[in-house]
UniProtKB/TrEMBL annotation:
<dbReference type="GO" id="GO:0016874">
    <property type="term" value="F:ligase activity"/>
</dbReference>
<keyword id="KW-0436">Ligase</keyword>
<dbReference type="Pfam" id="PF13193">
    <property type="entry name" value="AMP-binding_C"/>
</dbReference>
<feature type="domain" description="AMP-binding enzyme C-terminal">
    <location>
        <begin position="453"/>
        <end position="531"/>
    </location>
</feature>
<dbReference type="InterPro" id="IPR045851">
    <property type="entry name" value="AMP-bd_C_sf"/>
</dbReference>
<comment type="similarity">
    <text>Belongs to the ATP-dependent AMP-binding enzyme family.</text>
</comment>
<feature type="region of interest" description="Disordered">
    <location>
        <begin position="543"/>
        <end position="564"/>
    </location>
</feature>
<dbReference type="InterPro" id="IPR042099">
    <property type="entry name" value="ANL_N_sf"/>
</dbReference>
<dbReference type="InterPro" id="IPR025110">
    <property type="entry name" value="AMP-bd_C"/>
</dbReference>
<dbReference type="InterPro" id="IPR000873">
    <property type="entry name" value="AMP-dep_synth/lig_dom"/>
</dbReference>
<protein>
    <submittedName>
        <fullName>Uncharacterized protein</fullName>
    </submittedName>
</protein>
<feature type="domain" description="AMP-dependent synthetase/ligase">
    <location>
        <begin position="20"/>
        <end position="402"/>
    </location>
</feature>
<dbReference type="Pfam" id="PF00501">
    <property type="entry name" value="AMP-binding"/>
</dbReference>
Amino acid sequence: MDSLPKRDANYVPLSPITFLQRAASVYADRTSLVYGNTIFTWRQTYERCCRLAAALQQLGVMKKDVVSVLAPNTPALYEMHFAVPMAGAVLNAINTRLDATAAAGIIKHADPKLLFVDYQYMCLATESLRDGEAAGSISPLLVVIDDLNKPEETRIGELHYEQLVERGDPEQRPPRSVDDEWDAITLNYTSGTTSSALKGVVYSHRGAYLSTVGLLLQWGVGSEPVYLWSLPMFHCNGWTLTWGVAARGGVNVCIRTPAADDMYAALSAHGVTHMCGAPVLLNILVEARREPLLHAVEVLTGGAPPPAALLERVERLGFNVTHAYGMTEATGSAMVCEWRERWNALPTSTRARLKARQGVSALSLADAAVVNNIDTMQSVPRDGTALGEIMLRGNSIMKEYYKDTAATASAFRGGWFLTGDVGVVHPDGYVEIKDRSKDVIISGGENISSVDVEMALYQHHAVREAAVVAMPHPHWGETPCAFVALEPGFSCLGEVTEEDIILFCRDKMPHFMVPRKVVFVDKLPTNSTGKVRKIELRQRLHGCSQSAPGDSRPGSALAGKARL
Ligand code: ADP
């Protein structure tokens, strides 16, 4: 067949902002968003986004400018996921759990033209801007986001979000498509568990579109879902579901914080069908409730390995869990543990173990591999034991690290993106993560997966949280040390001792994997996205505040730490 030229009609740049135009036309009168007493329809959401985009342009925001926002899961943050790129600019949603120094670092690096700040985060923003000004940066123009549910109480500052929405010309519709699907749509900073260096991950319109569609398919999201915003939108743009809910004409139920009471109230008040969160969120759900839900809720979890025991407990409550693995650089999910019909007949604990695996490649990827040598790209055998580094390639991988060509170059090798995660492939082709490369413990030349030891610890009835890190050893080089937080009602002074935990592990694993030391803590240190800060645990062991071994993600993870 002759090759014909691409035409405007059949070659339209991909962008998730088209989902909003479609939702406004298909689901015009259906609720788009609920936030306390505030309710919008898709027609209204589209109009508000058009107005805001027009107002941004009036303020001089130009193509490729960065617009930052510091806000919890509110209507404004949702709308900005469309309005900012509709104005041609790049959205940078900043993690609200950061301290002023960390937020100032991001603002300095992203250098936004405008900074939108939720009224509750004004102190954090002004402190961050003060830090930035002291370091010689020019502050962006500040726009205050008042609370739509109580605007009169929160009117502070000069320029307000709602003023911009009112000011924008509703007739000024955005162009029907973006000029170039490879243009940047968002800038997301990684959560920083692997390195203290700032990594600003740039997504393209194309990558965002494909990731969104792929995740909707793999999670099986049908039309008109009711989606609870328990996952922060600032985390990889809510794992792309900011755009995804519009694509399915769903209802966005916005809550400011994922407190157990607020989540359970929203579940029953709005008939929530879908929600997301890291395993720490599953813990919150389990700890707050004993009786099963009245209707099943689909939960997508990821961001850290979910212990099988936790999956079992949360499913008993009526949550149907889908497990995904991902990272900022992969635009959210990179693998999904796709559920197989034949597994339904298996015993509960086996099902939970299968579900705790990270799974198979995301639909938006062209390929995923687990290799034991990144130079020869030799894949590990499908035996569930041989360790290798997970490599990804496909359209959902980030464009680049913002303003960091060296880091970008070292993240890619031979047409692949290096994840820095170490895993095995099971005979059925499903991947299971065993560690981050820098967290692998090497004891007398043997690799020990800290995740394997943690999963065994979670089987102990009194263990609520567990993290295992390498501890220097004069003979073996490294040995595992476990940090354990006990369930309420248990104490390390009485019911559960270090020796009990060690004896428990001896029953479950080979001798060399058993923790030599157990440190009891009230709570494990976690970062702003709920991941355990193993860097900090290693620092505690080393008794210093400077970086401990492994305190950076090397260009090639395998070359960096794990010798596989
Ligand atoms: P950071 O690398 O700064 O923590 P990210 O939030 O992008 O930032 O974290 C991505 C990392 O989280 C992955 O590389 C992986 O180590 C871990 N991770 C994500 N999902 C899972 C999962 N389902 N199971 C195990 N680890 C996971």
